[in-house]
Amino acid sequence: MANVKTIEQGFCSLCGRALLPNEGYLNLSAGSHICSHCIGKIRVMHPLTLTWDKKGNEVRHDPIEALSLEEAGRDLEHAIAFTEELRAKYDHHNAVFMVESVTTEKGGFLKPQVIYACGRVVYGYFDPQDKARLLHKGSASDVTLSGITELAFYGASKYPCQGTGGIPCALEFSGKNLNCEAGDLIVKD
Ligand SMILES: [Zn+2]
């Protein structure tokens, strides 16, 4: 028999799903592994952070890798309640993004500048074309997202990514007279 596929990493220690290398998985302590689906559910409780070394190489700090299997299982049970508590804290918006830094780009002839709000999704999810509101010093502006991209050492990269709870990323949008700075929130209702 030729071309037999083997699943080298076995199965998710939490939900039993087969671990496929192209979907991503994490190693926990004591040799257990969890799948991308379970990671996605508890990511909101354990935000991923990225830094860059002097050469511009990305360094990931993933608190999920430090969890025991018992802790990850307990978090999986509490993830929905945790998100509900966050929603209550942030005025029940459906999704919240925290701006940590901002880069801008000229928008072309007669077009407004393009803003890349770099930070992380606190909870919920953001998709391209989403209508959102930028909350800046007590004022709210309507914005339509034109892209969600990964972060890079220089700000926003060109690589699209999923804007889900706990994930560092950049939200791209443009508009006239928009002010956006660190500490602002971008929300969806
Ligand atoms: Zn799983």
Structural class: mainly beta
What best-fitting shape do the alpha-carbon axes yield?
A: globular
Return the CATH class of the largest domain.
Mainly Beta
Write down the secondary-structure element order: EEHEEHEEEEEEEEEE
| Ligands present | zinc ion
CATH architecture of the largest domain: Beta Barrel
Helix content: 10-25%
CATH superfamily of the largest domain: Translation factors
- Average pLDDT, rounded to a whole number, is 92
Beta content: 35-45%
The CATH topology annotation of the largest domain reads as Elongation Factor Tu (Ef-tu), domain 3
The number of strands is 14
Please list the strands of the largest sheet in the order they lie side by side: 9-8-14-5-6-13-10-11
What does the main sheet amount to? 8 strands, antiparallel
By DSSP (H or I, 4+ residues per run), the number of helices equals 2
**Alpha carbon gap, first and last residue:** 54 Å
Weakly predicted, low-confidence segments: none
Write down the Rg: 19 Å
The number of domains: 2
